Amino acid sequence: MTHEVPSRTLPSAALQETVQRALKRTPLRFTRRNFLAGAGALAAGLTIDSGMIARHSLEVVPQVLKIARLPEAFHGYRIAQISDIHLDAFTEPLFLSLAIRRLNQLAPDLVLLTGDFASHGPLSPAFARHAVVHCAELLHEIACPLRYAILGNHDTGIGSAFVVAALKASHIPTLVNQHVPIERNGQRFWLCGLDDPGTSNPILDLAVPRDPDGPVILLSHPPDFADEVVRHPRGALVDIMLAGHSHGGQVRLPFLGPLVLPPMGEKYVEGFYRFKQMQLYVNRGLGTVGLPFRLNCPPEITLFTMQDDSPIKKLSS
Ligand SMILES: [Fe+2]
C-alpha cells in the first residue's frame, strides 16, 4: 500500500494567492494622509513616553571616585549627589519624595545638593518662593544627617538669601564661597562651595582653602566653569568638581544629541571629565526646565564611592 505524498508547494502557493488577493483589495499606499497619521501616532507616543514615563525613570548611577592621597578613614566613603530639582515648575512633590526615599535606601555618608531647587520664572516670584519652601520641607526627609547645598542660577534669581534660609530651616547648610572640613576618625577632606558662576559672584580664593590638609571637593552649579577653575591658582588644589545645571541635555535625540543646552552647561554635559590635575562630574539632575520632557536622559541620583588613587608603594625586598 502506498501513500500519496502531499505536495509541499500547495500551502505556500495557496498562501501567496491569499496574500495577493488581499493586497489587491487593500493596496498599500504611501499617502500624505497615512504619513501624517503615522507621524502623529509616533509623536503622541513619544510625548507620553518623554513627558510621563522617561521623566520619572529615576536612575541611581554608581560611580567610583578615585582621589589621590585619600585618607584611610574615607576609603569606601559614599557620597550621594542630587541636582536641579526644579520643584513645582514641572517636578511633582511626589516624585521628589520618591527620589528622597530612594536616596535614603542608599544610606550615603554625605548628601550634596548642587542647586536649582525651584525655577525662576516663567511663573510668578511668589510661586517660585513657595516652591523653594516646599522643596526645602521635602528635603527635610533626607535621613543622612550630613548634607550640604550650593546655589544654582534659578536660586539666585529667586533670591539667594531666601533660598539659603529655607534650606537652613531644614538643617541643610548652603556653601556660598565657603568651605568646611568633613572629618572622620581624625582625618579630613575639604568640601568647598561656589556662589553661582553664571548669575552671581564666585570667589575661588574664598571657596577653596589656601593650604588644605586633605583632598578638596568643589561644588559649582554650572559645569563649564571648570575651565576657569583649572586656570585659577587655587584650581591646582581641587581634586574633583561636582556640577549639575546641564540636565544632561534633557531631550537627547537619536544621532543628534541634546536638543538644547543652557549657557555654561554646553561643553561638559554629563558624567566624568578629566583635566590635568582635576576631575569633573556632571549630574543630569532630577527635574526639567522649559518643557516637562526627558528623552534618552533619565533623571539621576549619583552615588560615589571614594577610593584611594595613590600609586602603590613597592615593598622593599
Ligand atoms: Fe541651572
Word description of this protein:
This protein is of the alpha/beta class and 317 residues long. The protein has 2 domains: 12-56; 59-308, Metallo-dependent phosphatases (Purple Acid Phosphatase, chain A, domain 2), CATH 3.60.21.10. 30% of the residues lie in helices and 20% in strands. It contains 7 helices and 13 strands. It has a 6-stranded mixed β-sheet with strand order 5-6-7-8-12-11, with no helix packed on it. It has a 5-stranded mixed β-sheet with strand order 1-13-2-3-4, covered by helices on one side. Helix 4 crosses helix 5 (153-169). The longest helix is centred in the N-terminal third of the chain and has 22 residues, at 32-53. Residues 1-12 have low confidence and may be disordered. Bound molecules: fe (ii) ion (FE2). The site of fe (ii) ion has 7 residues, from helix 5.
Topology:
Blueprint: H1 9-25, H2 32-53, E1 59-67, E2 78-82, H3 93-106, E3 110-113, H4 125-139, E4 147-149, H5 153-169, E5 178-184, E6 187-193, H6 204-207, E7 216-219, H7 226-231, E8 240-243, E9 252-253, E10 257-258, E11 271-274, E12 279-282, E13 300-308
